[in-house]
Specification:
This protein is mostly helical and about 500 residues long. The chain folds into 2 domains: about 1-275, no CATH class; about 280-494, no CATH class. About 75% of the residues lie in helices and about 5% in strands. The protein is built from 20 helices and 2 strands. It has helices spanning about 5-25, 30-55, 80-105, 110-130, 135-150, 155-190, 205-220, 230-235, 240-250, 250-265, 270-275, 280-295, 300-325, 325-355, 370, 375-385, 395-405, 410-435, 460-475, 480-490, and strands at about 60-65, 70-75. A two-stranded antiparallel sheet has the order 1-2. A hairpin with a 2-residue loop joins strand 1 (about 60-65) and strand 2 (about 70-75). The chain is globular, with a radius of gyration of 21 Å. One of its GO terms (cellular component) is plasma membrane.
Amino acid sequence: MSMELAIILSMVIPAVGAVLIALTGKSPNLRESVTMLTAVALFLNVLFLLGPVLDGERPEVTLLEMFPGLSIAFKVEPLGMMFSLIASGLWILNSIYSIGYMRGNSEKHQTRFYICFAVAISATLGLAYSANLLTLFIFYEVLTFSTYPLVSHKGDENAVKGARTYLGILVTTSVAFLFFAIAWTYYASGTLDFVSGGILGGKVEGPMMGLLLMLFIYGIGKAAVMPVHRWLPAAMVAPTPVSALLHAVAVVKSGVFSVVKVVVYTFGIDNLVDSGSADWLVYVSGFTIIAASMVALRQDNLKRRLAYSTISQLSYVVLAAAILTPISAVGAALHIAAHAFGKITLFFAAGSIYTAAHKTEVSQLDGIGWKMPITMTAFAIGALSMIGLPPTAGFISKWYIIQGAMSSENFAALSVIILSTLLNAGYFLPIIYKAFFKKPASHGTDSGGHHDDHGEAPLPIVIAITSTALLTILMFLFPDVALELAQQMIGGAQ
């Protein structure tokens, strides 16, 4: 198989899977078997590209060239390779989890759920391999619309309202800001291609470069930089597997992935350093990190606490990119992976608790670690990664970001990282303490009046949550592949 065919198959496999899922929808066992086989086939196809990319090859294919410098094309560079590995690999585990969750909670419209999930993954792979801003924009929009039915899955008033907020903010920002930024880039440079060192050097200068960067940052609403963040907590009305998709596998990762790609391959790190046009982004992302962490501290609903944690953690990636040093850019790429493994574990844990114990609030979790030791141990691992402590992946990415801030003497960024680490500990460690070191408030019921006679969630959920927690530790122990891809991204951009 050629590498060009493998690129196309990365989008075709999940799309075909969506069709097969629709055809087998009346047979749940067959439908879910098709989902699993499709996810595995996609991951193996992505793995086929990994070796050549690590060896320095950059396979590419053009589907349609409309005008010079304006085409729908794909190119597998190191950052896109990392993102595609994360998305395709976690789709397998999310599918296993979904089987246990959707059946365990007797969710309706399960066939539609699996179809939309497959289409969203197809869009994610198209975005990951985009060779230019036009291709990225197209798949960015497909991802938004394909996830709307997932957010509104329950169909009640709250779900519909949350989904409208989700769709409204993401479409408005992309059309009003991102599309305009892309058009401006094409007008200024005559191309939209992602190029090592950027394409805007000498083409856009002074305050105009800062303005263009601002349009990109707020146009990429999926990165959830404040004040363009309300869609993310609004989307928490969705089932937990969807929350995992939003927060770990596809949607928010497509946002911060796009930010890093634009900074490295459209503007160019050296161009931004020379112009000083990105200085404001350190303060905006830093504010988002601290403000979202402080809001998370006050949330009793577990999923909302995790949602605001995600807003904060995403801006770690934006902050790392804004520091504008090679080592901080490596940290940004690594944090995309570290956050994916850690946050999907946390959301899997929240869904596991809901499925087994029907508890949604932090105040209800007294002593639950003794009833659900696997779930809460996995939660603890994910939490440690978000705080940035060893032996978890979050320690590695945060270490590189800190090194980047220190090497550039960016003390504002360094202060944000230190303060936010304390805040992260402030809203995660009490949950672990309540789960393992506090007893339920009364015999037979918890502090929320819920019956406490339960154990772990169904086996597929336990398998998935154990696997993602293990990945969080394995990335700490064996970071070589992720680190090599991140370093190649910078090596190719200098």
